[in-house]
């Protein structure tokens, strides 16, 4: 089965308190985006598409030696809008699409391979990488159909009941989609939300409405899911990368 990887790297990263694009900050001797691209290359995909936006030329220049295709997101209108920019480059592609974030360098090749294998074995339209964490505050909770690998819904913190807030399984932001499901569903999401943005997670609502199966595969190592938004998180990620 063919595989395409889309890496989102268009954001500003304002909490890093730096003019440098967030994905170009270094940890363990490499820019964050380099870590993610190298992990992506290890999966031997058909193509890697990098979504650039904020300081796009600087990011493009930093990855010029890698076999990636850059797609511009301008203006930046949310995560769903970012992935929409990959559609032209994937015209006619009928395989699977793995979606990663350029500021999350801690996933191992093994975890990503296991996620993709699980997605293929279950025949799901979409599969979410999840993790159990001790303090899930702020994360979207994974509500499973009782006793199964299928997701009933993904509930954001602000919308969660007290019972749902007690669920430790959270959405990592890493997904595998059937390409047709992904891009057809993106056409059905809207900006009818507080931020007036296209949210990639709204695609799951489309899948649920259509009765398409959304599966979840849980990594046994919750450290892998952490993205980097602050200098403190960057230092933590560097420690973990140096230990790996």
TrEMBL record:
InterPro entries associated with the record: GlmU-like, MobA-like_NTP_Trfase, Nucleotide-diphossugar_trans
A Pfam family annotated for this UniProt entry: NTP_transf_3
Residue ranges of every copy of the MobA-like NTP transferase domain listed in the record: 6-154
Superkingdom as given in the UniProt entry: Bacteria
Annotated EC: 2.7.7.23
Keywords, alphabetical: Acyltransferase, Nucleotidyltransferase, Transferase
Gene Ontology MF terms: glucosamine-1-phosphate N-acetyltransferase activity; UDP-N-acetylglucosamine diphosphorylase activity
Catalytic activity of the protein: N-acetyl-alpha-D-glucosamine 1-phosphate + UTP + H(+) = UDP-N-acetyl-alpha-D-glucosamine + diphosphate; alpha-D-glucosamine 1-phosphate + acetyl-CoA = N-acetyl-alpha-D-glucosamine 1-phosphate + CoA + H(+)
Summary of the function given for this chain in its UniProt record: Catalyzes the last two sequential reactions in the de novo biosynthetic pathway for UDP-N-acetylglucosamine (UDP-GlcNAc). The C-terminal domain catalyzes the transfer of acetyl group from acetyl coenzyme A to glucosamine-1-phosphate (GlcN-1-P) to produce N-acetylglucosamine-1-phosphate (GlcNAc-1-P), which is converted into UDP-GlcNAc by the transfer of uridine 5-monophosphate (from uridine 5-triphosphate), a reaction catalyzed by the N-terminal domain.
UniProt similarity note: In the C-terminal section; belongs to the transferase hexapeptide repeat family. In the N-terminal section; belongs to the N-acetylglucosamine-1-phosphate uridyltransferase family.
Protein name from the UniProt record: UDP-N-acetylglucosamine pyrophosphorylase
Source organism: Chlorobium luteolum (strain DSM 273 / BCRC 81028 / 2530) (Pelodictyon luteolum)
């Amino acid at each position: 089965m063919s595989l395409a990887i889309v890496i989102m790297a268009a954001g500003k990263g304002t909490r890093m308190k730096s003019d440098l694009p967030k994905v170009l900050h270094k940890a363990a001797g490499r820019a964050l985006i380099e870590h993610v691209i190298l992990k992506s290359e290890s999966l031997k995909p058909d193509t890697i598409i990098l979504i650039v936006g904020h300081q796009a030329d600087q990011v493009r220049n930093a990855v010029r030696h890698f076999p990636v295709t850059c797609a511009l997101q301008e203006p930046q209108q949310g995560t769903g809008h970012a992935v929409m920019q990959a559609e032209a480059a994937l015209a006619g592609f009928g395989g699977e699409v793995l979606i990663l974030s350029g500021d999350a360098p801690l996933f191992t090749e093994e975890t990503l391979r296991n996620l993709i294998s699980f997605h293929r074995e279950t025949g799901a339209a979409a599969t979410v990488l999840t993790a159990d964490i001790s303090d899930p505050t702020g994360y979207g909770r994974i509500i499973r159909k009782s006793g199964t690998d299928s997701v009933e819904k993904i509930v954001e913190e602000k919308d969660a009941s007290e019972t749902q807030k007690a669920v430790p399984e959270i959405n990592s932001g890493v997904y595998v989609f059937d390409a047709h499901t992904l891009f057809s569903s993106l056409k059905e999401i809207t900006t009818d939300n507080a931020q007036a943005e296209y949210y990639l997670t709204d695609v799951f609502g489309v899948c649920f409405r259509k009765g398409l199966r959304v599966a979840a595969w849980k990594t046994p190592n919750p450290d892998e899911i952490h993205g980097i938004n602050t200098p403190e998180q960057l230092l933590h990620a560097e420690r973990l990368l140096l230990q790996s």
